[in-house]
Amino acid sequence: MSGPFATATEFCEFIGLPVPNDLARIQAHLGLASAVIRRYCDQVLSVVTNDVVTLPPVRGSTLILPERPVTAVSSVLVNGSSVTDFWFTAAGILHRGTVTGTIGESWVYGATITYTHGYAETTDEFHAIKTVCMEAASRAYTLNERSASEAMGSTLMESAGYSPEVFLTQGEKRDLADLGKVGIG
Prior knowledge:
3-stranded antiparallel beta sheet, 2 domains, alpha+beta, elongated
């Protein structure tokens, strides 16, 4: 799928940690946090260009694309033929017809859509996702660095058989709710 929302170097800057020689453990925590975020939102969230999805037939002139935000639709095929009378919204709604209000045909045969979706790294939404990712990874990382020394001497928690716990707080879930399917009524 997609990689972590933040790099190990960004994480070190975020928590004020000198960059260690081996960034693998930090990068693993960031990967886990990113997976938790994607699973919670039920979305990739990162930009995916030219993703292809085939949607089943529906009655009506509206299809719902599975990933959001939709930033471009490069092709729509119905029964192997190109369709040009469509428009879309960032929320992933693909309408058959024209923007001016002409309702098009129903999607009675379904469609194969090639589209681009996700948040660019320069957007505020991506920065919010990155922050949540680093906060979730930070809890697991610092628990093992600080609490482990108290509980297990100088042994890291995962070395003692305890795996790091990566989770989202209620506040982080609220921050993410509008970015994925969980924010859809």
